[in-house]
């Protein structure tokens, strides 16, 4: 049953986009929303499905909830790690998301300054 949940979770573009940016390490929900330009409710819904499939887990730090890849599941189902490492960069939209993430990290933004992500996105799209 777990494998079916995993495959269902992987079949959605928004969830793949989330997994794609989590490859680089934990992110707060507000960072995921800003980087992917999705609503809080949309992000939460997809993160819930990824959590239920054991693809991500989370921890709370102060007032923020951070999500990260569940490395135990990635070890158990090595094909997922293969997809993350070798396939996601082939998709234009996922590659763009990753570029925004890198620019976000390079700008030293955080949850407290996440509203500035739009400025980072504008710089990339110039």
From TrEMBL:
Sorted alphabetically, which PANTHER family does this protein's record hold?
A: ARSENICAL RESISTANCE OPERON REPRESSOR, TRANSCRIPTIONAL REGULATOR, ARSR FAMILY
Swiss-Prot/TrEMBL keywords:
DNA-binding, Transcription, Transcription regulation
Q: Name one Pfam family in it.
A: HTH_5
Q: Which Gene3D superfamilies match?
A: Winged helix-like DNA-binding domain superfamily/Winged helix DNA-binding domain (1.10.10.10)
- Protein known as: Winged helix-turn-helix transcriptional regulator
Q: Show the GO MF annotations.
A: DNA binding; DNA-binding transcription factor activity
Per the database record, which ranges form the HTH arsR-type domain? 1-95
